Amino acid sequence: MDEEKIIHFPVGILGFSEYHRYVIVEQEGSVFSFLQSVDEPDLSFVVIMPELLCCDYSVQLNDEDIDLLKVESPEDGKLYGIVTIPENVAEMTVNLQAPVVINTKELVGAQLIIQGDTYHTKHNVLAEMHKNAYLLQKQREMQEGEKIRESV
Amino acid sequence: MLVLTRKVDQSIMIGDNIRIVVVDVRGDQVKIGIDAPRDVLVHRHEIYEDIQAENQRAALTRQIDLGVLERTVRESKPHKG
What we know:
The complex is a heterodimer. Chain A is of the alpha+beta class. Chain A is built from 2 helices and 8 strands.
């Protein structure tokens, strides 16, 4: 295990507050990664970057979060959504209400809770991806449309 | 459970560094202010329970192959409508 990549979670993941050290295990070519506990080999989660699902997904950190995560600039932070994988994998959901935020510079992480009802704990991963792909496609079409208009 | 009666603007200390203030009372709604150290999580109980339960469901109980997830994503078709 690469000691330099261990991320400290001062508060832990909700429901697993006794575990404070995790690593992100990425797999090349995959949008999914593992959030793996360093101290409990049997404890791991599948995570995904929510930006891949919702193009406008962002998290507003309050002062306490900024202090806890020692964030100095927005580039320090990386967002992950925890994925729940049922028997039927196609029905997997992602928790966008409580994203995991990691300060990649200081290697501190926390699971935050987004206030309000925009996001909930069970967004269907495939549905969100298709919605996002559709929106991106529309955006591209509009941009291309503008280019065509400009060139006329 | 310890039950205390407080008026608006009065507060309660829990230990040395958690302060709970009754900010406002209107009908059956109470507005509560909380001063707590930043490593103490404060959330509405139902949200906290909801997220905790979702985390329990998400914690892997079987081997998951990320390649299988990846393929599921790539091979899925958009829903109509």
